[in-house]
């Protein structure tokens, strides 16, 4: 049986257009996508018409608070929507569906974006679709890279999950038992007072490139799950000892050289990414797959991609897929794309009260009606 | 490619016929009819942890050694306690090699009789093999009992999944794969061990997971004969589950 993706195609039209609004964390993104009718495939790819984003950046040492982030989104959402429509060069009445992130994410920022979505839906008389943020990442990653049935490593500020598809759901095989990888890196960046521009994780990556000495850190893989809070507490303490009032200096055992900030960033990345790659490989072995797709903001880290590549090379017919920062980092286009798939399989919201956002929304709660493999 | 990994082992143990039966996450597993010192040979298993090029060499060395030693230590202890697992034949720590007894049999679809393959086989061949029939319940309970016994002795498996249990004749489950094992009396560690299994069952056998998990826990209770400690673990398991569900997914 093949899923019919054209049951809801409008008369006299042979394509669909969707607009997607994303604002579950500190990035506000609006994207517009076009699907031609029929199944998506190598020869019938989704077409990105526009992809606009604005990031709320805080001073070094500070994380983004829900209230301030929500204010940022409110201030920018109208301008970003206008720009997305202009860039796409479409008539807004040609839009079939308005898609918004329904969760997971931070409450206040989600709220401010859904209000914009409801408003344009009412003014323009276009239906709404609520999208799970993680599903957005996965579907966009599959569409861009052409990975058919990969094990997905989803790594971002708020999420760390190893996911594989089975029987109409993206099922979570492994995940963090405490904090998310991006969160762990961001918090360490705050301890070191590293800049948040363009992103704390990016700046840690740059420092890590200059690190040489590996500091011993705990390694905490549990089955296909992992834990990071202990590692963060440990390295935070080291950093506080080194850069606090005590100025306690640490030496590398082999070379006798002093341990630097760069070495700490290097060591943290090495240990965390080793764990990520290991749990991904565990899931691969467990579901007998040989494809990996990395999605989410931390997925743009070059060292993580390199390590994953080295792992996959040692597996039979292994293949790795990753997207660049346009699609890896939170964006509106992925919400538009996943939302449009949902629309094409009848997933529109019929009653405004069902547009309420939720901070917790697990990946495996969504029924994937558009796949039947 | 796997071939180059296999040849690194062939260099280390020349003249041994090797048949690679699994490339797991951290180890390659081979079947061989050559025993290291006996002539009359039953088949044996050679588990080899190759070095992982993605890891920093220091991390790599530490993990390979720690896991190989840890696995063997755990198996000796199990053997001493009479908890079913393969017998150790010999080991080579620096090279990450363990020789052990081959256990299990081939299922009708020619797969190894791991608990996972066995369940999958029954799940796929629906009608005449109803996955919810008594036999499955019986085996789930046996597996649960085995884990209960393990925890009773303060032993943590660390990677409980349906692929890390092998059924031998008459459906007696044996445990394998102890690279992540540890010794601990803490209810938290035991609860996480159970939680990892529960989630593995949900993702691997999603349609029947609820029944499987219920039976596994029933067996666990039977195996964990220290009632007060058993209760502590189950109470903790509820906390761990809640933590999993409630974990806020934000930055
Ligand atoms: N003693 C054994 N007898 C028979 N099969 C085994 C034995 N040990 C391992 N296997 C097979 O090899 C697979 C991988 O072994 P395992 O020890 O679990 O390594 P990994 O850490 O790679 O998962 C198992 O799932 C099982 O099918
Ligand atoms: Mg295993």
Secondary structure topology:
The complex is a heterodimer of chains A (373) and B (251).
Chain A: E1 15-22, E2 27-36, E3 47-55, H1 66-88, E4 97-103, H2 107-124, E5 128-132, H3 133-145, E6 151-155, E7 160-166, E8 169-175, H4 181-191, H5 200-209, E9 221-222, E10 225-226, H6 229-243, H7 261-287, E11 291-295, H8 302-313, E12 319-322, H9 325-328, H10 332-344
Parallel strand pairs in A: 1-4, 4-5, 6-11, 11-12
Antiparallel strand pairs in A: 1-2, 2-3, 6-7, 7-8, 9-10
Helix pairs in contact in A: 1-2, 3-10, 4-5, 4-6, 5-7, 7-8
Chain B: H1 2-12, E1 19-23, E2 28-32, E3 44-48, H2 57-81, E4 88-92, E5 97-101, H3 115-124, H4 134-152, E6 155-156, E7 165-168, E8 172-175, E9 182-183, H5 187-204, H6 209-223, H7 227-246
Antiparallel strand pairs in B: 1-2, 2-3, 3-5, 4-5, 6-9, 7-8
Helix pairs in contact in B: 4-6, 5-6, 5-7
The structure holds adenosine-5'-diphosphate and magnesium ion.
Magnesium ion is lined by residues 24, 163-164, 177 of chain B.
Briefly, what is this?
The complex is a heterodimer of chains A (373) and B (251). By secondary structure, chain A is an alpha/beta fold.
Describe the 3D structure.
The complex is a heterodimer of chains A (373) and B (251). Chain A folds into two domains: 15-140 and 330-365, Nucleotidyltransferase, domain 5 (2-Layer Sandwich); 147-327, ATPase, nucleotide binding domain (Nucleotidyltransferase, domain 5), CATH 3.30.420.40. Chain A is built from ten helices and twelve strands. Chain A has helices at 66-88, 107-124, 133-145, 181-191, 200-209, 229-243, 261-287, 302-313, 325-328, 332-344, and strands at 15-22, 27-36, 47-55, 97-103, 128-132, 151-155, 160-166, 169-175, 221-222, 225-226, 291-295, 319-322. In chain A, strands 3-2-1-4-5 form a five-stranded mixed beta sheet, sandwiched between helices. A five-stranded mixed beta sheet of chain A has the order 8-7-6-11-12, with helices on both faces. In chain A, strand 7 and strand 8 form a beta hairpin. The longest helix of chain A is centred in the C-terminal third of the chain and has 27 residues, at 261-287. By secondary structure, chain B is of the alpha+beta class. Chain B has helices at residues 2-12, 57-81, 115-124, 134-152, 187-204, 209-223, 227-246; strands spanning 19-23, 28-32, 44-48, 88-92, 97-101, 155-156, 165-168, 172-175, 182-183. In chain B, the strands form three sheets. Chain B has a five-stranded antiparallel beta sheet, with helices on both faces. In chain B, helix 4 (134-152) crosses helix 6. Chain B is globular, with a radius of gyration of 19 Å. Chain B starts with a helix and ends in a 5-residue tail after the last helix. The mean pLDDT of chain B is 90. The chains are: A alpha/beta (373), B alpha+beta (251). Chains A and B meet through strand 8, helix 4, strand 9, helix 7 and helix 8 of A and helix 1, helix 2, helix 5 and helix 7 of B. The structure holds adenosine-5'-diphosphate and magnesium ion (MG). Magnesium ion (MG) is lined by residues 24, 163-164, 177 of chain B.
């Amino acid at each position: 049986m093949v899923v019919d993706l054209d049951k809801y195609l409008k008369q006299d039209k042979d394509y669909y257009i969707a607009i997607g609004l994303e604002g579950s964390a500190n990035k506000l993104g609006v994207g517009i996508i076009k699907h031609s009718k029929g199944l998506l495939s190598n020869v019938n790819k989704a077409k990105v018409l526009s992809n606009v984003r604005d990031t709320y950046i805080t001073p070094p040492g500070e994380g983004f608070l829900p209230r301030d982030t929500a204010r940022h989104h409110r201030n920018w959402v109208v301008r970003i929507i206008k720009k997305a429509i202009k860039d796409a060069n479409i008539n807004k009445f040609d839009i079939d569906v308005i898609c918004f992130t329904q969760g997971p994410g931070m409450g206040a920022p989600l709220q401010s974006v859904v209000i914009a979505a409801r408003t344009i839906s009412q003014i323009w008389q276009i239906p709404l679709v609520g999208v799970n943020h993680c599903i957005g990442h996965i579907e966009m990653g599959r569409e861009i890279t052409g990975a058919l049935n990969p094990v997905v490593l989803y790594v971002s500020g708020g999420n760390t999950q190893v996911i594989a598809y089975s029987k109409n759901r993206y099922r979570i095989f492994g995940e963090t038992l405490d904090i998310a990888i991006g969160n762990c890196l961001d918090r360490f960046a705050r301890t070191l007072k590293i800049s948040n521009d363009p992103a704390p994780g990016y700046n840690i990556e740059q420092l890590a490139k200059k690190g040489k000495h590996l500091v011993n850190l705990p390694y905490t893989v549990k089955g296909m799950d992992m834990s990071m809070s202990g590692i963060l507490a440990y390295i935070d303490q080291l950093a506080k000892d080194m850069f606090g009032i005590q100025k306690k200096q640490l030496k590398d055992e082999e070379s006798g050289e002093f341990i630097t900030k760069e070495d700490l960033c290097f060591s943290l990345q090495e240990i965390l990414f080793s764990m990520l790659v290991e749990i991904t490989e565990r899931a691969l072995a467990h579901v007998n797959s040989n494809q990996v797709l990395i999605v989410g903001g931390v997925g743009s880290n070059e060292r993580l991609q390199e390590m994953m590549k080295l792992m996959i090379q040692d597996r039979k017919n292994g293949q790795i897929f990753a997207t660049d920062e346009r699609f890896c980092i939170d964006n509106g286009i992925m919400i538009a794309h996943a939302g449009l798939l949902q629309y094409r399989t009848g997933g529109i919201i019929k009653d405004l009260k069902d547009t309420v956002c939720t901070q917790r929304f697990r990946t495996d709660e969504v029924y994937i009606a558009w796949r039947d493999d | 490619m796997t071939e180059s990994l296999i040849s690194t082992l062939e260099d280390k143990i020349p003249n041994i016929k090797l048949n690679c039966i699994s490339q797991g996450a951290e180890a390659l597993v081979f079947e061989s009819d050559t025993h290291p010192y006996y002539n009359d040979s039953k088949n044996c298993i050679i588990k080899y942890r190759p070095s992982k090029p993605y890891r920093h060499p220091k991390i790599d060395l530490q993990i390979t050694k720690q896991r190989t030693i840890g696995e063997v230590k755990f198996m000796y202890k199990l053997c001493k306690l009479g908890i079913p697992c393969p017998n150790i034949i010999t080991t080579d720590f620096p090279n990450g090699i363990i020789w052990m007894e081959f256990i299990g049999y081939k299922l009708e679809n020619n797969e190894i009789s791991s608990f996972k393959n066995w369940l999958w086989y029954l799940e796929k061949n629906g009608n005449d093999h109803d996955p919810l029939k008594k036999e499955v319940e019986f085996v789930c309970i046996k597996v649960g009992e085995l884990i209960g016994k393990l925890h009773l002795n303060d032993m943590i498996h660390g990677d409980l999944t349906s692929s890390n249990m092998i059924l031998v004749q008459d459906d007696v489950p044996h445990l394998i794969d102890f690279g992540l094992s540890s010794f601990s009396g803490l209810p938290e560690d035991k609860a996480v061990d159970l939680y990892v299994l529960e989630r593995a069952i949900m993702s691997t056998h999603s349609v029947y997971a609820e029944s499987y998990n219920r039976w596994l826990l029933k067996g666990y209770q039977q195996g964990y004969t220290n009632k007060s400690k058993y209760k502590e673990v189950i109470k903790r398991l509820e906390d761990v589950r809640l933590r999993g569900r409630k974990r806020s997914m934000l930055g």
